[in-house]
Design brief:
71 residues; mainly alpha
Length: 71
């Protein structure tokens, strides 16, 4: 499961880069992730909710691991 979450976080980083935003697993990346989550609300379907939750949540998790260790 941990590897799949890391892959989802890396996908979010790549998608963000494609959209012109360089993300790092740091406070600035977390702040942008929060803004992104606000921008994509409300979701239109259960599938969209699952995808957005996986992308946003996995990035936040990896940022926590980067800041505080673990993983």
């Amino acid at each position: 499961m941990g590897e799949k979450l890391r892959q989802a976080a890396e996908l979010f980083v790549r998608l963000s880069k494609d959209a012109g935003r360089e993300l790092e697993y740091d406070a600035a990346g977390v702040a942008w992730d929060d803004q992104y989550a606000d921008a994509v609300r409300p979701v239109e379907s259960d599938d969209q909710l699952r995808v957005q939750t996986a992308l946003v949540g996995s990035f936040l998790g990896e940022a926590l691991v980067a800041a505080h260790g673990g993983g």
